[in-house]
UniProtKB/TrEMBL annotation:
Segments forming domain Maestro/Maestro-like HEAT-repeats: 52-244
Coiled coil region boundaries: none
One GO cellular component term: cytoplasm
Gene coding for it: MRO
InterPro entries associated with the record: ARM-like, ARM-type_fold, HEAT_Maestro, Maestro_heat-like_prot
Region of interest: Disordered: 1-21
Protein name (record): Maestro
Pfam families, per the entry: HEAT_MROH2B_C
């Protein structure tokens, strides 16, 4: 991804003045169409909205894909019951956006919308989408862009609450692979990212518990000694939380 794209990430997406008037009008018209259908969904079948968003989500134009992800976020906020009813379609579109090969804006918007949608459905019925979302989100925890890191930590912390029995083993492995990132970003240069990381650290703490059968000379024990030292120095309140929950 180029530097210009990363600089503008997190800022409101503006339509360049150099764009033809007809193209600018079509983009505004798209948003108006989605908003209108959400407002008057009793008159217009919501499936039509899904059709429009699904088409835009795979459009060759990155701006249209970005708007589709944003449209899904609007739908999740204004019509949560319909989103729950069609959650497989919605999740499929959002995961598609999360793995966008070109646009960081699409990826970022997908993460933000996923956070909203997962909250609405309470993590139910995620199926294999849980793996897809977790793997991609974990890779973004160390991204150089502050907005991406922040959204990634928020989403990863939310996933910790929805792992359940089915994905507990998988997510435990992901958290252990993420431990260094969690430690590093407790001291993130961006205060908001550091705060999100701290919240996520607590949410992931049950997955960091030691197994009784580990020997004191094991590699796992050595890593937890490092964890103890860093937390005692920088975040004694988190260390106290760990002790209270018998994590260390």
């Amino acid at each position: 991804m180029d530097q210009r794209q990363r600089r503008i990430l997190g800022q409101p997406l503006s339509i360049p003045t150099s764009q033809p008037k007809q193209k600018r009008t079509s983009m505004i018209s798209f948003f108006s169409k989605v908003s209108w259908k959400l407002k008057f969904q009793k008159r217009e079948p919501l499936k039509n909205v899904f059709f429009v968003l699904a088409e835009r989500a795979r459009d060759p134009n990155a701006k249209k894909r970005h708007m589709a992800m944003r449209g899904l976020g609007t739908m999740a906020c204004e019509a949560p019951d319909k989103v729950r009813k069609h959650k497989k379609i919605v999740l499929d579109l959002l995961v598609y956006g999360l793995y966008d090969p070109v646009s960081l804006e699409v990826i970022h918007e997908s993460m933000k919308t996923l956070t909203v949608v997962l909250g609405k459905i309470q993590g139910k019925g995620l199926g294999s989408f849980f793996i897809d979302i977790t793997l991609q989100t974990r890779t973004l925890l160390d991204d150089e862009n502050d907005s991406l890191r922040y959204s990634a930590f928020v989403l990863f912390g939310q996933l910790a609450a929805f792992a359940g029995r089915k994905w507990k083993k998988f997510f435990t492995g992901q958290v252990k692979q993420t431990r260094d990132s969690l430690l590093i970003h407790l001291q993130d240069r961006n205060p908001q990212v550091a705060k999100a990381c701290k919240t996520t650290f607590r949410a992931c703490s049950p997955y960091l518990k030691l197994r009784k059968e580990y020997s004191f000379q094991s590699e796992e024990d050595q890593r937890n000694t490092k964890l103890y030292r860093q937390l005692s120095h920088y975040h004694p309140e988190i260390l106290q939380f760990f002790y209270a929950n018998k994590i260390l």
